[in-house]
Design goal:
- The complex is a heterodimer of chains A (291) and B (301).
- With 291 residues, chain A is an alpha/beta fold.
- Chain A folds into 2 domains: 2-54 and 122-290, P-loop containing nucleotide triphosphate hydrolases (Rossmann fold, 3-Layer(aba) Sandwich); 62-118, Alpha-Beta Plaits.
- Chain A has 11 helices and 11 strands.
- In chain A, the strands form 2 sheets. Chain A has a 9-stranded mixed β-sheet, with helices on both faces.
- The longest helix of chain A has 26 residues, at 265-290.
- The two termini of chain A are 21 Å apart.
- With 301 residues, chain B is of the alpha/beta class.
- Chain B folds into 2 domains: 2-56 and 119-298, P-loop containing nucleotide triphosphate hydrolases (Rossmann fold, 3-Layer(aba) Sandwich); 61-111, Alpha-Beta Plaits (2-Layer Sandwich), CATH 3.30.70.
- Chain B is 34% helix and 23% strand.
- Chain B contains 10 helices and 11 strands.
- Chain B has helices spanning 15-25, 41-45, 74-77, 99-103, 141-159, 174-180, 194-209, 225-237, 251-257, 270-284; strands at 2-7, 29-33, 48-59, 62-63, 109-110, 113-124, 127-134, 163-167, 185-190, 214-219, 241-246.
- Chain B has a 9-stranded mixed β-sheet, sandwiched between helices.
- Chain B is elongated and about 70 Å long.
- Classes of the chains: A alpha/beta (291), B alpha/beta (301).
- Chains A and B meet through helix 4, helix 6, helix 7 and helix 9 of A and helix 4, helix 6, helix 7 and helix 9 of B.
Amino acid sequence: MIISVASGKGGTGKTTVATNLAVALSERGTGVELLDCDVEEPNAHLFLQPSIERTEVVETPVPLVDESKCTFCKKCSDLCRFNALAVVGKRVLVFAELCHSCGGCMLVCPEGAITETGRELGLLSFGHRDRIGFINGRLRVGEAMSPPLIKKVRSAADPDRVTLIDAPPGTSCPVIAAMHGADFVLLVTEPTPFGLHDLRLAVEAVKLLGIPAGLVVNRADIGDDQVFRYAESENLPLLLTIPFDRRIAEAYSRGRLVVEELPEWREKFVDLYRSIETIVHGRQAAVCANS
Amino acid sequence: MRELVIISGKGGTGKTSLTAAFAALARNSLLCDADVDAADLHLLMQPTVKRRTDFMGGSKALINPDLCTGCGTCRPLCRFDAISERLEVDPIRCEGCGVCVDFCPESAIDFPVQRCGEWYISDTRFGPMVHARLGIAEENSGKLVSLVRKESRQLAEERGHDLILTDGPPGIGCPVIAAIGGATALVIVVEPTVSGIHDMERVIDLAAHFRVPGMVCVNKFDLNLEMTEAIEQLAQTRNAALIGRIPFDPVFTRSMVAGKTLFEYGEETPTHRLVREIWGNIVDSPSMNPLGIVDFKATIQ
């Protein structure tokens, strides 16, 4: 089971939901692994406090040109759609930060003058907190491309455990990389005009990927009721509401988990998981019945 | 002309609400929404769109089944696993590199340019606004951010606006890099939480990397005073100017629900006064005005 926790708008409580759900599930004996795929600003470790066992530098291949073999035919720079190569006189300039690692230049070079070296994307960390597995990606400051690092985090997941993905905000390629192939997307929003507007975009993204989704409304008593109405009109199941509670906000500010500070929330997060399970299994049954 | 970009690293710290409040205080500014992925500024500005333009991003591969002989050359060449066993391209996985297009022995793969969104020039009650909407699941958000910033600068020059107020995206990746390069200064809005301080540090690293001066404002500071102090201390050691603190105040949410900026909603409260002071600190800051000129209009231009 892969559950991706996403939101559209930032700061709505994705990390709060993902980390508390992980702890609540683990405590009742479910094998869980949390993947922090918000690689630009990873935060889950601040709340989960995992012990990190190992780290791994992630690189993406970029071209390395051997100018002694190069005939400056420009086939590589003509092929590259990202302007990562330029042939200027008897020099080949490689703009590694623009390279998307497609390998086209290496394939097209008739002289075999191009090999690959790496550009550092960031760091993967592997660890655990009690029985919860933990993996996060940390984008190198100055690196523009987060999707390849997100894909690396995803590919390191343990398929035998429930995977909880803490996704980045937004609806463009990094979010898609964090939702693609998930069994369920849990959308977290707040009931404000900004929250609603960005939720609509996130729902569009989820529909495009064809993944079932459900909603968590955080700080449920601020703002207005438009988010609830929208969820109803979209048949988006409302799975959990978290009220604005200064105790929760202050616990969050210190890096404390809600389930630790207010133990009555454990059962609510477990119920949230049960609702997700029911939806996903119901859908799988429907798919089997139809095929 | 100067450009002030409001960013935060962490999402949801109050960038857009503050940008809108500053717009209400600034004289002769132009607004730019550089959060093209989840743009919200228009919800407070209710812009009247004057010009709408398609944003054409990269291309995506499309296999023409009439020409395809099913040789499968393309499939192993694609490093993004975008070509299925049935030799169909998954547009979500396609990176737009064109390798399959160039190496298809039958020239059976088309490479149409994609419409990835649209961008607008609009009028608002606080002056012109340049904004955009990136299509769902699209790439090239950095390219669109660069485009709206370029158009903002051009429009500001044409119409004689001396300040561009840019609402930035969260994070530190491609759209943020596109949003801050070459800006006059950054306002970094931070909330006093463990994630707020963590994310601020990364965004300050990014600002330093691109050599843009930053100023720090702590929002909802009273949620955790100790953390607020830690943030301010860290900001100072990193040479980011402190421009003020804003308390947790539901007036921000209420004005948002009303579709208004802070200064158009309700009675003047201490929060209003604090935001005015912060705006004053920004305008007077050395990064916005390195020469200390009191009245730019009076100088030889």
